[in-house]
Design brief:
This protein has one domain. By secondary structure, the protein is mainly α. The two termini are about 25 Å apart. Helices cover about 70% and strands about 0% of the residues.
Length: about 160
């Protein structure tokens, strides 16, 4: 019960939901402004683009939390148990390398955008580019958690990305 009331546990879900609501409201407002008011909201298109980047990166991290990424489970389950363990360790290592590269280069890229501002809403691009290392960090975190809970705690482990 305490976990249900803990807001930190749902922080990622709340952020994704909030961004989705803002995206829907902005897109709907843009359509109404164009077709009913015969004018265009110049800033909404740019803001939607930036929010969509954040939405994609946070949602990818959330998919790692739920172990909801696509996998060829029907082929994987036909393999011998030892081979499945080796493949899972390899996948875990490769994903961690990819996420670390995302984090490192994402920070460098975000830092380069500290003096650059968006054209319409005058937003520092560091906030836009920060979605890359934040998303990479969330994916790395949940990949490590999933590996630990599924592999290191369970001796009969064989399916990293299968939640059942």
């Amino acid at each position: 019960m305490k976990k249900l009331l803990d807001l930190r546990y749902y922080l990622l879900e709340i952020a994704i939901s909030l961004i989705l609501v803002i995206l829907v409201v902005l897109c709907f407002s843009q359509v109404v402004a164009r077709y009913v008011l015969r004018t265009s909201l110049s800033w909404s298109e740019e803001l939607v683009r930036y929010l969509l980047l954040w939405f994609g990166m946070l949602t990818a991290g959330y998919c790692f939390k739920l172990k909801a990424h696509i996998a060829l489970v029907f082929v994987f389950k036909k393999l011998p148990f030892l081979f499945r363990k080796i493949i899972n360790i390899f996948i875990f290592a490769v994903l961690n390398i990819i996420f670390l590269v995302m984090i490192i280069w994402g920070f460098k890229y975000a830092y380069m955008g500290k003096d650059i501002y968006s054209s319409t809403i005058n937003l520092p691009m560091v906030f836009v580019y920060a979605a890359i290392p934040v998303g990479g960090g969330i994916m790395l975190y949940y990949n490590i958690i999933n590996f630990y809970t599924s592999f290191l705690k369970n001796k009969k482990y064989g399916d990293t990305f299968n939640s059942d």
